[in-house]
Design brief:
Length: about 180
């Protein structure tokens, strides 16, 4: 998921499910996603849990469940599940990308950058992770320029840089610290 689409994890999940899922399991994945899209979070999580109980090592359903939790405003649980996925399946880049999105959403840009760099070491051509890394770096640059402006309010070079980043990143270029 891209940082700009923090609450739309279904796009990545649909692509990942198609690429990784066995045909017999695809229906189970699709059902959880359908329930989540329909606002039936409790039911989606129950279906995911039922599936995971029967297939505890399945990374895809665990990934889907983490995305449902994230979309439901339960980032701590989503982060715990994604972190466990990175331990169980260190060869998968997607959990690292989604961890980065959670970190960035909480303003933990250094942790987000580190997670994205890990995703890109695993899969150097992962376009979504590259885009997210650019977003994180732009937000970090905006924060540095804002701090510099607080320290040197008369510096005429800072305002155009801050405005350029606002144009690229929107409200994200206005960090609190």
């Amino acid at each position: 998921m891209t940082l700009r689409r923090l609450l739309s994890p279904i796009r990545l999940l649909a692509l990942l499910a198609c690429a990784l899922a066995a045909p017999a399991w695809a229906d189970d994945y699709a059902e959880v996603q359908r329930l989540q899209r329909g606002g039936q979070t409790r039911e989606a999580l129950a279906e995911a849990d039922k599936y995971i109980a029967a297939h505890p090592r399945d990374p895809q359903m665990r990934f889907i469940k983490a995305s449902v939790l994230s979309a439901a405003g339960r980032p701590d649980e989503a982060q715990e599940l994604l972190t466990q996925l990175t331990r169980d399946y260190p060869e998968l880049a997607e959990p690292w990308n989604n961890l980065a999105v959670l970190h960035a959403g909480r303003g933990r840009l250094d942790q987000a950058r580190e997670a994205l760099e890990t995703a890109l070491r695993i899969q150097p051509d992962y376009a979504t992770a590259l885009e997210n890394l650019g977003d994180v770096q732009a937000r970090q640059a905006a924060a540095a320029y804002q701090r510099a402006r607080r320290l040197d309010a008369g510096n005429p070079r800072l305002a155009p840089k801050i405005e350029a980043l606002r144009a690229v990143t929107g409200a994200a270029a206005q960090p609190g610290g």
